[in-house]
Design a protein that fits this description.
Elements lengths: L12 E3 L12 E3 L2 H5 L5 H10 L1 E4 L12 H4 L5 H15 L13 H8 L2 E5 L7 E2 L5 E5 L10 H4 L4 H17 L21 H14 L8 H17 L8
Parallel strand pairs: 3-4, 4-6
Antiparallel strand pairs: 1-2, 5-6
Helix pairs in contact: 4-7, 7-8, 8-9
Length: 243
């Protein structure tokens, strides 16, 4: 089970090449994570996620308000639904300059190969967990006072916050690879090297901080991921500590 909340964010980065006045090349703009959050998921992005995963919204604190229309996204979407498709789109686009420590795949194909679906639930569960039904991670999606609850709904345009949902998906999906928590409290793991759920979460944060395309994440977002990695390695291992 994942406890606590991570917060993450992103920016637009321009790559341009210049020359003499007669040979200047046009600049190329890369759509960063925050730019993805600023628009509605396209029909193709919705279809890609639906092809790869079964998404169930048993509980939706944003229900009753459409933020993306069928004309924009192939069907009407609430904020929670739109954020889920946006996060999965961002996840598909993530690249790293080194292989992930626990898989030879990129992050998105690893996750979609590890689970069948994502089920959003409310106060009928105490925390997010894996898995019910089999192969489906259960995500606690609630809102509370003082900006508590699912950060992707509280700060919907900042990937520093919305990215917490992606990291939570990664944590819970790792459980379905056969990695329960290994400390006596059944909440934490013994070591980073086990590469159980907390170890994979630690490396996800670390790779987002140090090994992503700087055109996709801002320096401040990367610093936030590093802060999250340090928090995990200093509190979530009963026989280990930060490198």
């Amino acid at each position: 089970m994942a406890r606590g909340t991570l917060i993450i964010g992103c920016v637009i980065f321009l790559l341009s090449c210049g020359g003499s006045k007669s040979t200047t090349s046009p600049s190329t703009q890369i759509e960063d994570a925050n730019a993805v959050l600023a628009r509605c998921p396209t029909p193709a992005e919705v279809a890609a996620a639906d092809r790869d995963l079964v998404l169930s919204f048993d509980s939706d604190p944003s229900a009753g308000r459409v933020v993306c229309s069928a004309a924009q996204s192939s069907r009407d979407l609430t904020l929670l639904q739109a954020q889920t498709y946006r996060v999965l789109t961002i996840m598909r686009r993530l690249t790293f300059d080194q292989p992930l420590p626990w898989t030879a795949n990129a992050l998105y194909p690893w996750m979609t190969g590890s689970i069948r679906g994502i089920r959003f639930r409310g106060d009928d569960i105490a925390n997010s967990f894996c898995c019910d039904p089999a192969g489906t991670i259960d995500i606690k999606a609630t809102l509370g006072p003082n900006n508590s609850g699912l950060a992707a709904l509280v700060f919907p345009t900042d990937f520093r916050a919305v990215g917490t949902l992606m990291v939570l998906f990664v944590h819970e999906a790792r459980h379905n690879n056969g990695f329960p928590h290994t400390c006596a409290d059944a909440i934490n793991d013994k070591t980073i090297a086990e590469l159980a759920a907390w170890g994979v979460q630690y490396y996800t944060d670390l790779f987002l901080a140090n090994h992503t395309n700087p055109a996709f994440l801002t320096l401040s977002a990367r610093a936030g991921f590093m802060q999250d990695a340090q928090s995990v390695c200093s509190t979530r291992f009963c026989q280990d500590h930060c490198p």
